[in-house]
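Hi R.,

As promised on Friday, here is the backbone we talked about, encoded as structure tokens. Could you run it through your design pipeline when you get a chance and send me back a sequence?
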């Protein structure tokens, strides 16, 4: 009888541990305050079709990094947009809806924000870039969140994206539409070893 109780207790402990781990894996890296401000946000295609209507609005978008460039006091990250899961994870197998030109006030390490990594950006919608090959949204980042690196970085996909839409240079002079609003964005990664 005592052995049966021990087995039940052991099984219950395993069920508790597994459910705890599953719950942790489904947590969004975006703070709840930003998720609340972005609640009910329009689709990527709606924003890309008329960015002026959504200018200044906080949205959460994500995808796969195509390129990261450093400028004197800021960084630009070009992202191939992907739909997000309910937990704000870019879906790796989904088709891209266009590009996200992310402006970050500060310097990001291009080795960390490397091509092929999945990223989620919470930020404010900015005016449409001067030149925009394909559907593009320009954002000023409040929070950047990298997802763990996949075992195989898709270099062919990056080359295809660059060939079809060009690099950051194709968006015209960055200074023409850089308009910082006055807050200091924060950066969050998943910690050393995740990428």
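Update: got your reply. Pasting your designed sequence below so it's all in one thread:
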């Amino acid at each position: 009888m005592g052995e049966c109780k021990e087995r039940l207790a052991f099984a219950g402990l395993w069920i508790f541990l597994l459910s705890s781990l599953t719950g942790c894996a489904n947590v969004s890296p975006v703070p709840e305050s930003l998720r609340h401000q972005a609640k009910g946000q329009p689709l990527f295609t709606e924003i890309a079709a008329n960015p002026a209507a959504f200018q200044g609005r906080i949205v959460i978008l994500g995808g796969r990094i195509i390129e990261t460039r450093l400028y004197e006091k800021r960084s630009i990250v070009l992202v191939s947009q992907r739909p997000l899961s309910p937990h704000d994870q870019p879906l790796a197998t989904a088709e891209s809806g266009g590009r996200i030109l992310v402006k970050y006030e500060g310097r990001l390490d291009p080795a960390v924000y490397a091509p092929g990594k999945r990223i989620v950006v919470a930020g404010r919608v900015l005016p449409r870039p001067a030149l925009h090959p394909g559907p593009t949204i320009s954002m000023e980042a409040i929070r950047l969140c990298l997802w763990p690196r996949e075992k195989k970085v898709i270099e062919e996909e990056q080359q295809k994206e660059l060939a079809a839409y060009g690099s950051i240079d194709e968006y015209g002079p960055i200074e023409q539409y850089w308009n910082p609003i006055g807050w200091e964005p924060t950066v969050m990664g998943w910690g050393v070893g995740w990428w």
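One thing I noticed while checking it: The beta strands are 58-70, 75-82, 99-104, 118-126, 136-146, 186-188.

Thanks again,
M.
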